[in-house]
Amino acid sequence: MGAIFSNSFNPQKDIPSLEGKVYLVTGGNSGIGMYTILHLARRGATVYMGARNENKAKASISQLKSEGLAHGNGRIIYHYLDLSDPRLAKKSAQEFLSREQRLDGLGPLSITKDGVIQGVVTNHISPFVFTNELLPLMKKTAQEPGSDVRIVNVSSYAHTLPASQYTKFDSKESLNVTFGSGTLDQMRRYGITKLMNVLHINELQRRLDTENVPIICISLHPGGVQTPGLLEGVSKWRFGSFLKTIAGTFLKSSSDGALTSTFAAAAPVVRQWPEKYRGAYLEPYTKIASKRKEAQSKDSGKELWNTTEKIVDEMGL
After folding, report:
1. pTM summary value
2. The CATH number of the domain where 151 resides is what?
3. Is 190 a catalytic residue?
4. Which of 291, 222, 213, 215 has its CA nearest to residue 263?
5. Is residue 227 a part of any domain in this protein?
6. pLDDT of residue 271
7. pLDDT for residue 224
8. Which of 100, 124, 204, 308 is the most exposed place for a label (fewest CB within 10 A)?
9. Cis peptide before 285 (omega within 30 of 0)
10. Is 248 helix (H, G, I), strand (E, B) or coil?
11. Which of 30, 92, 155, 300 is catalytic?
């Protein structure tokens, strides 16, 4: 109960043994994903690191082992995952299904050949396909005694950036809305995909509740985190070297940035208070935060889901 009234969270103390549980964390070879894997594995879980580059992933696994995967901790296993194409995402999910019999937790501007902006494909459509392909296994796991299955989408405070007129999702064209080439324009474009993450979780939770499936779905803002991707992006801006230094000084480490996603994936208080956490949006580290108006719309969630299904059908998936 304490986590509801306190914003502190220590995975080593606040998460019980996860021995026997299986998690799959996407984008796991760096940043928040990598340290979410570390926190879960330290509590005994088997954690699959979903990543595209095997060499980088295995280097990351070696680094994590050096940071504290001592005897008695869980396992970290590389799993090939490329979210740049929904077809590859589906194939990856099918390969995972052939490897495991349970799944307790699922972790987070060029035009593609399918006519959808790449950021939307990578941040929304491929995760949508990947999640749906694994959902039957997660539903099966959720029926086992003592199970506690969760689906976590790492969104961002950036979901509040796009203006309301850019938050309709009733067609492929509406998903492809573009802005200028400036930094703020790119943040708005990114913010739309992060709004999609929140809406996806909302609608998925609604559908699971309708089926009386006890899976808890959560979206979250990890806070300002000095991930490799962010620092690389900042370095390309005007005065990039200076801004990169500032970012490294004031932003959270990747390890601290992973605490919110680790809490969402495995903290016992989430299952103790399911009515509070189903479809919730979290901010560091345990706070249930308010979503922007458009992110609370059931109609928008259904609209995005239906449009995404149509696009996926056109892809032949």
Report:
1. 0.87
2. 3.40.50.720
3. yes
4. 222
5. no
6. 98
7. 67
8. 100
9. yes
10. helix
11. 155
* 113 is a catalytic site residue: no
What pLDDT shows up at residue 118? Answer: 85
Residue 192 lies in a domain: yes
SS3 content of the chain, % helix, strand, coil (to 5): 55, 10, 35
Residue 245 lies in a domain: no
**Radius of gyration (Cα) for the chain, nearest Å?**
19
What's at 233, amino acid-wise?
G
Count: domains in the chain: 1
Q: Helix (H, G, I), strand (E, B), or coil: what is residue 154? A: strand
Cα four-point dihedral sign 42, 38, 61, 256: negative
Q: Give the position of tokens 């580059």.
A: 53
**Of these residues, 21, 91, 194, 252, which one is catalytic?**
194
Kindly indicate the confidence band of residue 1, based on its pLDDT and cuts at 50, 70 and 90: very low
**pLDDT tens per residue, range 85-126:** 999 999 999 999 999 999 999 986 555 556 668 889 999 999
Q: Indicate the pLDDT class of residue 283, thresholds 50, 70 and 90.
A: very high
Instruction: Considering only residues 196 and 246, tell me which one the structure prediction assigns the higher pLDDT.
Output: 196
Q: Which domain holds residue 82?
A: 14-222+258-314
Of 35, 190, 277, 285, catalytic: 190
Q: Is residue 6 part of a domain?
A: no
